[in-house]
Structures are given as structure tokens and as C-alpha cells.
Amino acid sequence: MSARPLVLIVSPGDETSRSYCLEQVAAAYDVVLLTGTEPSWEKPHIIDHVVAELHDDTDLLAAARALATRHDLAGVVTWDEWHLVATARLARALGLPANSVEVMRACRNKAIARALFARHGVPSATSMKARTLLEAGRAAATLGFPVVIKPAAFAGAIGVIRVDGPEELPAAFEFASAGASRSREDTGVLVEEYLDGPEVSVECVTHRGVTTAVAVNRKQLGPAPYFDQIVHTVDATDPLLAQITPAAAAAVKALGITTGVQHVELRLVDGRPRLIEVNARVAGDMIGHLVRLATGIDLPKAAADLACGRAPDITPTRSGAAGIRMLYPDASGTLTARHITQPFAAHTPWLRQVRWIREIGDRLVLPPEGDLFTARAGFYIVTGRNTTEVNERLNTAADEITVTTQADR
Predict the structure, then answer these.
(1) What is the pLDDT of residue 180?
(2) What is d(CA 247, CA 226) in angstroms, rounded to the nearest whole number?
């Protein structure tokens, strides 16, 4: 029998973007899995699993109880946005440490979060709910253009669009409503004040109600009016971290979060932080991996530690920088070519990873018809001494990578 504590992970995600999370947790814990499909790539990292219908609360709880009868569970954790509420519910049913279900609902619902930010004096965006196009028009007129229209409870910038004038409202409201219709929690739409400034995120760790910001992630977005995230860079010595930490910590506290890892998104408006949202889990887009490359801090393990009621070690052991660029085609169509210059790839040590997620012959679809799940062909990761060097290297590598599509006839 292993002497290591045992953690239950709900929905490990896909191998491409989440395998590092499972690997890092399994290095310190024995892992059992609740998953929607039979494990494949996960098998070397787990000791047991149950396949369940992850969106059926009854089935999920029954599967968790089955694992709990076979194993002495120390905690339960997920990094899957869609299962945050269900995982909190499981933790409560099994008597394991976690934030409350109500807190997780607040994190998942942007309208509730905005109300809590306002109540606690956290600088955010003015927001109004709109059930119809007419209500959206009234809200936009009240807030003043430009505005942002978005689903109240979704993720990945799906259905999020900037609107610069009333003539754009009908198509934008339809776009946001289509995104909102995919939510299992709230199909409502929000009209919000547009925060004009660079977008960043703060990667936070909260233990017993005390939040520590461990890294800041600077973002580059794709073409307006959409908000697809194209580039992320993390620098261990970024001076922006100290400036925006108080706002991030205040947002976490306003939502009632007392434990866990958070990905807090903000915009800097006239140099001052304004909250977008708090995601109560390890960030997507490999950002947690960038944090480890730049600082040595292991966010997935910290999440597991906290889920098991332990104080995580978030002491930096490195001081560098790392970045990722998502690979998008110039236009929607069938993927006809995807490659990197091999001599460059073979002789460039700072190019840490190139990963293709779509095959030749696949159709790539950009917004507004598509989203990040249909548009991205792959990604690559680089490291460097600081943000400037990482950005230079991201640009250098971009010149060696080809993504070509053939437009539909």
C-alpha cells in the first residue's frame, strides 16, 4: 500500500492542454479519476477510476461514493471549468475540504460575480442583464458604446463580442445568445461596459482565506470584435504583479473563496486594474505550465494540496520567463499544411514545445462561425530570461511555422 495521500480528480481534460496537470499531481499523490470516457493517456498516472456521466449529478455522486468505498480519499479537485460546481457538491457530500457550492456558482455566473464585486467595492465593469434584443439596446444606450455582450455563464471567450454602435447590436446579440445557449447553468446574456486597456491575468493561490498572487500573465488577443486569446507570457520578475495583486485578492475575497487556485482576469484601464472575472481553477491555455517554467511554482500540485487541506509550497525556485502562442489560420477552411522548419526546431533549445491539435484535412473555423475549439491548429511554447526576450522568440518561431487552409468553395 502506498503511504502517499490519495486525491480524486474530476474530469482530467484533454491530453494536449491538461496532461501536465495530472502528471504534476501524480508526482506527489496517488490519483483516482472520475471521467466521462475510459482512460487512455491518463493510465500511467492513476491507480483507479470510474466512468460516469459527468453532467448528471446523481451519476457523478454515485461514482464518487463508489471510489470512496474503495479508497481513503483526502480530497477532490477539478481544473475543468464546467465541473466546478459539481466538484464542490461532491466534496460536501464526501466531507472533504472545498469552497461551498454557492461560492462556486458565484464564480461560474458573471452576473452574480459583478454584483458581489460592486457590493465589496472591487473595481469592475458596469453590467446589465438582457433577455431580449430590446433590453440589450436599452442597456447599451445606458452604458454608452462601445459595450461588450457576453454569455452570463460560459468560458473561453465563446460568445463574447465588442459592439461599437447600435447597428451592430442585432448580430452581436445573436452571437452572444448562441454562446449562452450552450451553458447548462445560465443561458442569459450580459451587456457590459467596455474596459479599454491591456488584458492580463493573475494566477493566485488561496489558503485559509489568504490569497497570494504568484504570477502575472500578459495576454495578446486576436482581431476585434472578438476576444480570442492568442498569446500568453509569464515573467517571474514582472513588476506588474505587485501593482495588481490587491485587486485580484479583493476579487477572490468578494466571491467568498477561501481555498484553491484562481485565474483572475483583469484589464488595465488608465493603468488601473478593473476586474473581468475570477476562474476558480488552474488556468487553461497551458498558463499553469508557463508559471512553472518561469517560477518553478507547481499550481496543479498546489490545487491538490489545498483540496486535501494542506498548505501548499509556493516558493519560487526559478526566475525566468515563458510564453505560448496559439496557432490560427489566416482564414477559415480546410487545413492543407501545418509544419515547422525542422533544422530550426532541432537546434533551438528555447523552443520548448510545438503541439499540433488538428490534422491535415480538418476544417478550421474562425469566429463568428467558430470558436477556439474549431479555430486553433496547435500551439508552441518558448522560454527566455524576460518578457522582451520571450516575445522576440515567439516572433522568431512564428516565421518558421506554417499553417495553411484552403477556403471552402
Answers:
(1) 79
(2) 25
Q: How many independent structural domains does the chain possess? A: 4
**Residue carrying C-alpha cell 468578494:** 254
Structural domain of 361: 320-409
**Rounded to whole angstroms, how far apart are CA atoms 241 and 204?**
11
pLDDT single digits (tens) 165-199: 999 999 999 988 887 776 676 677 899 999 999 99
Contact (Cβ atoms closer than 8 angstroms) between residue 318 and residue 298: no
Q: Contact, 259 vs 304, CB < 8 A?
A: no
Task: Tell whether 202 and 172 lie within a shared domain.
Answer: no
87 and 39 assigned to the same domain: yes
Low-confidence ranges of the chain (pLDDT < 70): 1-2, 154-156, 182-183, 185-186, 409
CATH number assigned to the domain comprising residue 34: 3.40.50.20
**pLDDT, position 297:** 98
Predicted pLDDT of residue 170: 93
Give the chain as a 3 state SS string. Answer: CCCCCEEEEECCCCHHHHHHHHHHHHCCCEEEEEECCCCCCCHHHCCEEEECCCCCHHHHHHHHHHHHHHCCCCEEECCCHHHHHHHHHHHHHHCCCCCCHHHHHHHHCHHHHHHHHHHCCCCCCCEEEECCHHHHHHHHHHHCCCEEEEECCCCCCCCCEEECCHHHHHHHHHHHHHHHCCCCCCCCEEEEECCCCCEEEEEEEEECCEEEEEEEEEEEECCCCECCEEEEEEECCCCHHHHHHHHHHHHHHHCCCCCEEEEEEEEEECCEEEEEEEECCCCCCCHHHHHHHHHCCCHHHHHHHHHCCCCCCCCCCCCCEEEEEEECCCCCEEEEEEEECHHHHHCCCCEEEEEECCCCCCEECCCCCCCHHHHCCEEEEEEECCHHHHHHHHHHHHCCEEEEEECCC
